[in-house]
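Example record used in the benchmark description.
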Amino acid sequence: MSWTLTVKRRDTVPHMNGVVERFTAGVGHCPASSSDGAPPTLPDLEDEAVRLGVRVTWQELPAGYCGVYDWTRCRIVLHDGLTPVQARCTLCHELEHVRYGDRVCGGKGEARARRRTALRLVSPVAYAAAEQVYDGCAWQIACELGVTMQVIGDYRQILHDSGMVWQ
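Model output (structure tokens):
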């Protein structure tokens, strides 16, 4: 499936009249951990885990698992083979499970964690600019924003659900 946002191209990204306002008005942005309003970094998320009283450990996990929230031991386990970008996205996702006290995998809790992770890690302004610069190429946008393709896909689903126009 190809996703391309229909917007009018501007000569300079910071002055994309109306584009940024449409992204921020229709989607919103979850509060970031950093004091400057930027999406949280991996160290920010590790600090957040400490504040929430959750230990973060690294170990090999079964195929297909990047991370798990073990509520019985109050810990998040991240797969030890993750890249820094994958670790950041996975930790953010697992922290959403912590925040909401999820005790089962899947269902509404999983959908909520994915949505909130996308909203926390993707700045609407940065996304709008990357969408323009990279002509809708999800891989390049993900690289530019320091997130996984799954996070970009989830963010695009949020945009779609909020009524943004896609071709």
